[in-house]
Amino acid sequence: MKTITLLLLIPFLISWEGSDVAAQDLRKGKLVTEYLTSTILVENRVGIDPKRSISVYLPRGYDENKKSYPVVYYFHSLGYSNERLFAEGNDVQPIIDRAIANGVIGEFILVAANYSSPTLGSWYENSSTSGRWLDFTIKELLPYIDGHFRTIRHRDSRGLTGDFTGGYGAIKFAMLYPDLFSVVYALHPVGTGSGLRPMSGVVDWPRLHQAKAFSDLGGDFYAPGFVAMAQAYLPNPDRPPFYCDFVVEMENGKPVTKPDKVALLQSRFYLDELLKENGDNLRKMHGIAFDWGRYDPTQSHVYSNQAFTRKLDNLGIEHIAEEYNGGAYDKNWIEHGRVEDNMLPFLNRHLAFEK
């Protein structure tokens, strides 16, 4: 009799287990890849492909309902891309899936566009040399996402985030476009201030000025980034091969600092300098937060973030800033890392979700 009873229960057990697996599958969102051919990015001197890929994370059930969702725009760092962010083996999607399933954050759409280029990638600026990335984002990317997905088309439901130079970009967009975004969380942003060392002492300037192509800069850790920075903030269409000016020029075979170029780059680039004209825009944000790892090998990044939070305090701009025990990247996209336990809960508190 026990055997017969067990046999009768087997179909039920199988059905129950299958339902549980199906329920787990429904907890997962999906990743789609879109392509946007930009007319804005055609204007450049570095050979940018105007066809940009866009990785879009959609929460579970997106295809089965008619809900609209808040959108978080994620900006990747130099030398990276949206494809690498979501590449197999990375935990980006599993972390978001788990956070939504556990109620850490409500259902939302995550958008990560491709900001890479032949010269490392975007410094999130409008440049005649390295591309008008601000305009691309605001005039092309946002309308494309709102036009192709069920988004809540209001600043209260748009957030900004990113890591390293992408974190810089996230804060910059918050400064410049408070009418479009309402919350920002930057993961270990760089470019928040001038740091500990003058630019003249960071790069091998004689070697840089001898380079005939971007590929010639290999071997100098800082040179590629500084060239990309100069292309973004000191563009000069009449100066090949990099089509930009520099804060240090060669005179009689020796590197000489150019104070006017230093002042110009700092005024256009550093976030603490941008506060002079755009600080009031940050007051319009519902939430501002950034963090940084204490053991970044480039300690100027640590110092700059420490100074930046104090400048925000001096201006009375409410924000959260935290220095944690780690490096620039190692605590972000891991289980119970900075993204899951800090960034996503912060966004959840400040974004407006559909009721």
Short recap of the structure:
By secondary structure, this protein is of the alpha/beta class.
Helicity level: 25-40%
Cα(first) to Cα(last) distance is 53 Å
Derived structural class: alpha/beta
Count of helical stretches: 11
Biggest sheet, open or closed, and with what strands and sense?
8 strands, mixed
Rg over alpha carbons: 23 Å
Name the overall outline.
globular
Keywords:
single chain, globular, 12 strands, two-stranded antiparallel ribbon, alpha/beta, 8-stranded mixed beta sheet, 355 residues, disordered N terminus
Describe the structure.
There is one protein chain. The chain is globular and about 70 Å long. The chain has helices at about 1-25, 80-85, 90-100, 135-150, 165-175, 205-210, 225-235, 260-270, 270-285, 300-315, 340-350; strands spanning about 30-35, 50-60, 70-75, 110-115, 125, 130, 160-165, 185, 250, 255, 285-295, 320-325. It is built from eleven helices and twelve strands. A hairpin with a 3-residue loop joins β5 and β6. The relative contact order is 0.13. The longest helix has 25 residues, at about 1-25. With about 350 residues, the protein is of the alpha/beta class. The N and C termini lie far apart (about 55 Å).
Chain-wise SSE layout:
Elements: H1 2-26, E1 30-37, E2 51-58, E3 71-75, H2 82-85, H3 92-101, E4 109-113, E5 126-127, E6 131-132, H4 133-148, E7 158-163, H5 165-176, E8 183-187, H6 205-210, H7 223-233, E9 248-251, E10 254-257, H8 259-269, H9 271-283, E11 287-293, H10 299-314, E12 320-324, H11 338-350
Parallel strand pairs: 3-4, 3-7, 7-8, 8-11, 11-12
Antiparallel strand pairs: 1-2, 2-4, 5-6, 9-10
